[in-house]
Fold:
Amino acid sequence: MLIRPPESLPSQAVPRRIAVRVKQKAVPAIRSGHPWLFEDSVKKAPPDAAPGDVAILYDPDGKKILGAGLYDPDSQLRVRILQKDPSQLPVGPALFAKLASDATAIRTNAIPPETTAYRLANGESDGFPGLVADRYADTLVVKLYSEAFVPWAGDIADAFFAANPGLVHCVIRLSRALEDSPFVRRAFPKPAVVFTAKPEAFNNPVRFQENGIVFEADVIRGQKTGFFLDQRDNRARVGTMSAGRDVLNVFSFSGGFSLYAARGGASSVCSLDADKHAIAACSRHFELNSAHPNVRRCMHEGIVGDAFEVMHDLAKAKRRFGLVIVDPPSFAKSAAERDRALHSYARLASLADSLLKPGGTLVFASCSSRVSADDLFPVVLAHTHVRELARTGHAADHPALFPESHYLKCLYAEKLP
Structure:
């Protein structure tokens, strides 16, 4: 168990239970196991309900219990549902311990060898709608996306420590949407809080392995929880198709795809990102892995700049690549941004096509949940001269059991002569 002073993280030992009656339209979804109750589906709730209160969900007549979850009064997702039958295991530390143990167990055979960083809980698909938990070697990173989990953060961290021997340090991070919440800031004065039994042993960035490649993750300020763990399987696939090729990695971040390409035998790798710190981290990762002969031989070029502008300039300079990876950030944070996002994806696809050698491979990914694979891939194919080879999604430790949890999609295609 994690040793922490009582004041280091909030803990709600005696939860407040509240009754929430739902509208009839929400009943089928709740009974089918959907983890969200929306604001417009609440028929009646206490006006003074606070974030983290345990909401017992009743049918519209208030007679039958439908489930239980955590209340979030400031969110359109008013209740994060954790339990169908609260009489069996009430929402609280014991339930968190079971959920963390179950999530850990299903990953026992899903993590490849020489890999010390992976997802421990993927939101609602692992019974935690509103948070994710990742492991980086001996460090647990929990990221909160809902105020409902804030009073329970200490109990949740303890649950994951109990289920995962070898953890020493914990970082609790807030999503950007929570950083300005007065309620959250009272519990977490900073966007990230570190607590540990061995403060003298905690170092950031945290060094870890992925399929034998050494990376570092900034678990306090880095994107997501510090690294894009969901792309692990796609990175490994890219490594198998890079031998002898010149590779362009667009939106490279800290060079995940770049390192796999180099180790896979790429002749050269060009990493492109708008963030100079990301390119510096990419170069650092090449240094950390320089003992591998393929990485040592690979010529690496880091370019800081706007992807659209740099890709245009590379095409104008008649640079051509045997493998082009395009893995942009989410261009659509809401449904209203979907059309604009598709336009941006079309531009990127056209630019990537202009940089591909005949017979070269395009790897095009999107992490936007607002843009489905059926929306994205026809646009990419319409703006390129390629033949589709395969479609993939999240890594195995990122299960997606609900339609809304499917966000990552990746297309592999070959440039036609």
User: Anything to note?
Assistant: Residues 93-206 form a domain with the Transcription Regulator spoIIAA fold (CATH 3.30.750.80). The chain is about 25% helix and 30% strand.
